[in-house]
Fold:
Amino acid sequence: MKTDDIDIAGQADLKIGVVPVINLEWTQKIHRDRASRGYSTEAVTDTILRRMHDYVHVICPQFTETDINFQRVPVVDTSNPFIARWIPTPDESLVVIRFKSPRGIDFPYLTQMIEGSWMSRANSIVIPGPKMDLAMQLILTPLVARMVSRSKRA
Structure:
C-alpha cells in the first residue's frame, strides 16, 4: 500500500508478487466459491464486480512495487471463466517471472537449471508451470542469504 501518507512497501526488504492472470484468478474464485461455499455463479459474479474498483486501484498497483513477480499464465482456453469446467493445472500453465531490477540475477544459470525456460525480456524469464517451486528456490535462496549476510554485518 502506498499513499501520500503511507508507504508500507517502502518498509520491506524484498517484495514478491504471486498472481495468476485475471481470467485464471476468476476461474479459481468461481470454482472455489461454488464448491466450498455453495454460492451461485451469479453471486460470485456480483462479488467480482463489486471488487473491480479495488482490483484496478489497489491490487494491480501493488505489483509495480514488487521486486519479483511470479505470474501463472494458462496455456488452455480461459476466455470465459464463468463457464469453465476445470481450473487449469500447473502442467497447463507457464509462469512469467519479472524482476524489477535484473542486475545481479544470473539468467544463464536459471535457464540452465530450469528445463524448458527462456528469457522473454531482459528482466523476465518464462518457465513451465510445474517448475515454479524450483524457480522460487533458485531465485529466492541467494537473495535471502544476501539479506541475512548484510544484516549480520550491519
Summary: The longest strand covers residues 68-74. The CA atoms of residues 129 and 139 lie 15 Å apart. The chain has one domain: 14-153. The mean pLDDT is 93.
